Amino acid sequence: MSDIAVRVENLSKRYRIGGPQARYKTLRESLVDMAAAPARRLRRLGQPSPDNETIWALKDVSFEVEHGEVLGIIGRNGSGKTTLLKLLSRITEPTEGYAEIKGRVGSLLEVGTGFHPELTGRENIYLNGAILGMKRAEIDQKFDEIVAFSEIEKFLDTPVKRYSSGMYVRLAFAVAAHLEPEILLVDEVLAVGDAAFQKKCLGKMGDVAKEGRTVLFVSHNQKAISDLCDWAVRLENGQVADQGASADVVRRYLEEQLGTEAVSAGHTTVVPDPSKPMRLRALTVLDHQGRQAGEVEMGQAFRVRIEYDVNRPTTSAHVICFFHTTDGVNVFGSGDADCSPERLGERKVGRYIAEFEVPPFILGAGGYSISVNLSIPFREYLDRHDSVLYFTVRDTSSMRRHSYRQRRPGILGFDLPWTYVNNEPVQHDQ
Amino acid sequence: MAEAAIEKTSTIVIRPSRGWVSLDLRDLWRYRELLYFLTWRDIKVRYKQTILGAAWAILQPFFTMIVFSVFFGRLAKVPSDGIPYPIFAYCALLPWSYFAGALDRASNSLVGSSHLITKVYFPRLAIPISAVLAGLVDFGVAFVVLLGMMVYYGFAPTTAALTLPFFLLLAVATALAVGLWLSALNVQYRDVRYTIPFLTQFWLFATPIAYPSSLVPERWRAWYGLNPMAGVAEGFRWALLGKQPPGPLLAVSIIVVVLLLIGGLYYFRRMEKTFADIV
Predict the structure, then answer these.
(1) Among A105-114, A290-299, B145-154, which is the least confidently predicted range?
(2) Choosing a second label site near B76 at 20 to 30 A (CA), which of A140, A203, A252, B97?
(3) Among A90, A119, A181, beta carbon nearest to B14
(4) Is B89 within 8 Å of B72 (Cβ atoms)?
(5) Does A35 fall in a domain?
């Protein structure tokens, strides 16, 4: 028996837009259509069917997911991600193609599907559970867990229409999180609730993935995709535009969004602007061998080179680089005056080239961006470039890769030696 | 989802379907718990935030009965086959209000559940079926009033009363059969929503509720059964009030309902794949 959990072959879905069936129509329109149809069909004879009335939301998408794999699906709005999940969830039928799913499927296109505002939290847990495909006995069994996860014990017997939106979402996610299918299809459900709850949800998703369940995960959260998923598929106009290891797909996607080939080369330039007293010219990442590089090794130091112009003599200015993860977490910042306060004095007009070194084992594997601020601290920004350069930190250490299929998650990449306090294992006291 | 509850390694095949599809009632059976919860939800929610609550289930047929008794029974002197007019009318109004309510809710059920249809898979048949079943609670409440009236007018139930569940089933089947057609049509043509009030109004007068079917000439009476609610109304009166049995009229009603129901199920299943796209 093959180990394929989800097999998708040339799956396609066509929607009509602006055509006769675009919106629900009235009977009268339909009758008029019917009367006019023969004439129209005659006129159209021999002409190809009008393509402008239909749109392929999904076209010839094929891939296979093995049992226990976590597949991320990314792409712009309207690229067909949700259509794909809707087809696999059997909400709507494909126009062409074929898909096969082996195992119990649970799909979460949103949380709280079917919640009824008039019903209490308790009642909605049962209703929502049943809608998601849980058996009553299963809900009974997990009821306490769901309530604990949602943190709404006190309001269990209050109609959910009296809930705050945060409580509503927590309850909804709690039910969804306790669905235990073999294959889980998830769409953007993490984009709900406050930051703390989002973390909790991501954690829960991570648990699901670790339990060896098969997951198809659509998200805009690129960090979540590269952290949780083994590999990813990027859809573009309903077609598979890219697939591969999730971190790579995310990085290539970001590069494309920026539209700069310079990104992968580890170098970017900025158009000069003499009207500003100080102006960034170029930013470069140099690997441990001093080569311009879009990818650096986690176990090696790398350098960042900043070139900037001073167009008017400026005092008290500071040049700072910030490192962000691809989903926007600020990891650290470093400024040219941090260790040399004398640099806050006057800068003469001219071109400056500065470098600093990031030691090995600081940044964990993953994608990062660098933002540059030229500013007078606490007074004004002279020049500011957010996420002007992207680069990737690679982890080739066999040990860390050993425990994770792609890479070990985590922003920081310390390499910490462990010591054991005892050389011989201590015997259990029986 | 539920497949695995039956067997662990079931395979779901997703491919375009063409034309008429099988009813796949097995799938519906797997989702029977959902059917239960949807019905339960409809019942629970019905009278939330009302003062009179379940009394609404009684008020509607009861006041219609009073109006009918005054205008048709007292003023127009419509015959009632020797049965006191109020109980004569109420006995038929009871299944009728169930039917009219169930039909209305079933027809609007799919459009009203668009948020479910576009977000999660389950056999869509569960939606109109639960809408039809939820009305039975109201029927039960209103039935108690009928029992009270039977005591008041001195009608002792006979063995014929045992057939009552059958006539109720006939009313449920009629509501479901018509509801399946209309709910599926309503997804595509919202005209249906505006048609239903007229439809039920005309249908009410085409059904022997305010008058007995004996007003219809003998040789046409069997054809009167083409309106299945005629069979239901006369059946209720026969079962509880001891009129003569409905006879061939009932047979025609049953045939009509069975045909409508099978047709409705297949039509519904055929249209089902388009629901999520056009609702």
Answers:
(1) A105-114
(2) B97
(3) A90
(4) yes
(5) yes
